[in-house]
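Record pair follows.
FIRST:
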Amino acid sequence: MKKLIFILITFILLFLVLALFEGVLRLAGYGRDYPLFIQKGSTLVTNPDFARKYFSDADISIPELIEQKIPLKKGNGVPRIVALGGSTTAGFPYEVNINFPWFLKTRLQREWPGKKVEMINLGISAVNSFTVADMTDEVIALEPDAVLIYMGHNEFYGALGPASTQAIGSNRALIRLTLWLREWRLYQLLQNGLRLFSPAEQGKSKASLMSQMIGRAQLLPGDPLYRTTLDNFSANLSEILSTLKEAGIHVIISPLVSNLRDQYPLGHTPLMEEKENRERYEQARAAWQADSTAAALNRLSPLLKLKPVPAEAAWLAAKIYDRLGQWPQAESYYRLARDNDPMPFRAPSAINRIIDSLAGRFGVPLTDTGERFRRQAREHIPGNDLFLEHLHPNQRGYALIARSFEQRLSFLKDAGATGRDTLSLKSYLAEQPFTLFDMRIGEMKVESLLEGFPFNGRTVFTGTPSTPLVDSLVRRHIYHKLFWDGAHFELGDYYKQNNRYDEALAEYEAVYYNDPTNPSALYRIGDIYLLKKEFDRAAEWYRRALEVTPGKAYLYAKLGRTLMIAEKTDEALKALETVIQLEKQKKTLKDDDRKTLYYLLGVGYARQGKYRRAEAAANMSLSIDRKFYPPFALKQKIKRLKKISGKK
């Protein structure tokens, strides 16, 4: 008994010492927390370091959350929707405005003009269900009206995945314990201490994040680790759905889709290393390339009876049936090639079966994403018509995912989610505020990705026809840190100078929809409507810019000029006189702008019959530029008007 008491006291003392040490480290500011959001005043901002918690290797290019700001306190009547998942949810390889949460938000905003909708995209590249489960409590704290889930592709190779370089075993309890310990400063101190004895880092690898995550290049369905991975996914998803449902939050989950038709298996099946199997495969492939399908199937047949069927053989069988026009058989073999791929970056059918089963168990709506992709795909087999590479959709594919979620949001009636599905895919995309520049960002990233491991140039990709100017701006953005909005402005300004007003408007609107408080986007949109002689709309956008940045002389000048052209003289003079007052405090306008300002004042005063003030304004304009003709013409007009009216 005494021995037991002694052991107990020893453990208590040890715990107290550790707790004291932990407290000292926290007070000293050592280490870091990993909150999902950081509070800044009355605003919550996504934490760029959040994902670091899930990556242990300092040489990995750790991904970040998309930068977003939301009010600390949820507004009354403002629907708040959170999207969870990996890189597809984040919109990889695109940026900002081509992803399914963004498409869904802009669609809902159009359904109810003037109504604010908060869409929070918490997708992170290279993470899996362990990360999503770990962030669930913080998601609940945001008080969302709905949570959208699209995840499962990264279970094997995502952070903490058993085949990844970031693996810490496959035992779910051990992984969860490790994540808990990573919040402790003592654990962080120990990790940092161990790094002192590790080889010096040589800087981050230039390889893609995808290739950096590959720890084990072969993992077949019969492997016990494969089964454990599926079990962990099922347990994590079950916990996520249970926790969100208990909190009273609407949850919608999507099955996963991937490129079946145009993605050769990424891994290499060990059975294909046997000489006889390899020879049969090469002979079958040669016959297929020679358009001898019967001979190809004959040589391939023994390989299709192996257990498991090698992914390469299933892929070739799919191609043969595809050429024969026997598409149900082709689709079946395409799926088998994906499911037996020894490098399972594309989620196998087993993942979708788990999603379907748990959605039914918890009463969670399941989207029809898979069926939509089948309907839109050529011969109902999704390929490069909807995907960029192995699993990331192109803009058409992202639109399909968005529409599938929208159909399940009918309970958000006040947010304009009507459940209607009347637009064609082409019309739906035409409503979305992105341009060729945004598409080429993603495509150029994919072109680079496909050159490296594990694709090694085997995946065929054809980009969208572009122009030298667009591609130059894309390269400057990706490789030379040109800001995304700045690139859109450069492109829009070019189009404006070449009288391509609709194209310029599209570039400016892309920035505006991403940030409605960007004054440069607001006044540039106004400039285009002015050039299109839509004066009321131009004035509206200038007023919006002034609401965002009040007291800007150049904005009042733009507004005044527009109103003067529209012959709204009283309003125009009020705006122009404001410019004069602002310029007395601080000179910001160039001489060209100032001479035009005084000329317009003169025009306005002349219209009101205030001829002395009109002449004075014209003279001020001429004092700035004696060669500026309009004020000369105005003075002559004033003389005629004075004679007619009899005024002096």
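SECOND:
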Amino acid sequence: MRIQEMDGEYRTGNAPQSVGYTGPADSNFAGFNIWDLFRVLSRWWWVIALITLVSLLVTFYVVSQATPVYMASSIIEVKQQERQIFNQDSEVENFVVDSEFFNTQIELLRSDTLAGDIIDQFNLTADPEFTTIEGTRVEKRNMAISAFATKLNVVAVGRSRLIKVSFEHTNPRKARDIANAVTESFVTYNLERKYNATSYARDFIEDRLRSTKEILEKSERELVEYAATNDLVTVQDTQGNVSPGFLASESLVALNSELLNARTKRIELEQKYNIAKNQDSPVSASEGRVLADLRRTHTDLTAEYIEKSAIYVPEFPVMVELQSRIDYIAEQIEAETDFLQGQGLSALKAEYDVALGSEQNLQNRFLALKNSFGDIRDKSVEYNILKREVETNRSQYDALLQRLKEVSIADDIGSNLISLVDAAETPQIPFKPRVLLSLLIAGFLGSLLGTVLVFALEYIDDRIKSPDDVKNKLGGVVMGVIPVAKNILKTGKSLNRDTEDAKGLRRITEVLSNPSSAVAEAYASLRTNLQFSGPDGGPRVIHITSTRSGEGKSVSSLGLALRYAGLGDKVLLIDADMRLPTFKHGVQQSIGLSGLLTSRENIDDNILLTAHDNLYLLPSGANVPNPSEILSTYRLGEILDHVRDKYSYVIVDSPPVMGLADAPILASNCDASLLVVEGASTRTPAVKATIDRLLVSGIKVLGIVITKYTQQSKGYYNYYQYSYGDAATNYSSASQKKSSNSIVKDYMDIMSKR
């Protein structure tokens, strides 16, 4: 076996990696493509149209059979809700709380209480539109309320304070009457609810006011009784504060004042007596008026000094100054007494004794009263407790009285915030069903459902249908796209063994041989792609296989061979499918590939000339029981090396990959492989498994050839019946029966089962 070692050349043996296969994409759809969208819609438009048409017909039938329903509407206004707060000056302050109040009114219109009143008013429990079962009155009423809620529609009108109340009924007059009854009942209900709330608040406050008044009167009586029992009086200070006291406290205050006066008088007389006693001769008041004035001044200063001595120390400047003045007055008195004589000490002594006795008497009385005044604080605590209780009760009473006045004023100035704007009128046109709108919605939903269904089917469908699928689903390279040749047979299908005849064989050959045909042009494009797939004109020994039978690999092998031969190159077509041969010569002059693999016969003597210039054929030969074993011998490499030197291109038509070992063995001895995939027929997992098997074997996969490509392709007949071995057996017997129908010598038979 010859192995090319030059960089960039294709070589036989184990290729390390496929240059055309890069691995599958992450998902079935690598990205959004608007042309894929149009392609799917153009392919499945009839499904969308059919579903839309069915939706329209069903909707039209349902709408035509429906009973007309009428809707009557009335409009009410909800004014601004005002919260009335009274300040100290009894003025009303308004605060808008409109949003919550407005929404509350809408929910009240939908309440079961209001619905129950309307049902009772119109006896709707007997209406078959509201009750459909036989049962108790309560059950019928509950069902009627539920049905009433479904027919009643309450909505706000835009951004206004208007509420639209609508009701549906098959009878237009009844719809009008019920709609008006709902709004009228709601207005009345709102007034009653407001009156009941105000009346309840007033009764509640009055009851609390009576009980609070009784408690206040009781606490006041207890306070008065306690004060009387304990001789307690109230004394108001200069700040206006009232505090409790005893009757004896007034006497104590008076005695205290008299005691202070008596003490002051005694001090003055004592000072006079001491002064006179210290003199040589006492001076009378009539004889020494100046001296008396001096002594009085001395006494005042002495008293002031004594009084301030309780506050200041003797060294304090004020005290020092007073002492200096006292000393000075004393000197003046001493000087004055030198001139005055005759003052009697007895008179001064008598006055002094009287003043001293009076002071002691007042002092004793004051101490006695003071001792009896010791328990005033204990009794004041109890008095203050009773007093605070009275004040608390009085505050509660005043607050309740004020609140009662506010409620009374609010009841007088309040007004109904709900008013009727427009009453409902008898509708003339049915509200439901809306034929045009229903058909539009049905058409839209039907087309949407059809589109979703089509794209769901397209997403679920994992067949390889277009070159984009090869890239997006397989991550591979499309080497060629072969359209389906509809003019091969009248039915538009490829030939199989059951329809095989000379006319069909000639027609296939004519299509592939005609360079102007679309199929021939597609194979010419494939040939060109192969020539530019490598630096030296592409691979020379090309292995062609497929995932399963019937995908067009044999026709692709012939078409590609004819296109190479059309360039003047010497081309050899090897039919390597020894299980189910495709190409058969009319006159058996060759032992075929199977014979060469099992013998040492001359290779060139078994290569046949076809009816096409530059195209030669090595048939598969006789059927063998173990094709994969004879392909695994070194003889296969010798045969391919030999023909490589003799021919410009060698096309090897291989069996399918899945389930057989033949294809990987053949591919490992070729330069590269082409995988043929039938458009809109082969599933993605099967193709992935085929590529993975080839890559694991170290085979160079150049790319994929899509055959029988058409937007409307629906698949082709698989004559292998999912069992390649059984089909080979069937073919062998069929070929023996039809051997007499072989074409003349040197004409290549094409049995286009693929």
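COMMENT: The chain has a mean pLDDT of 76.
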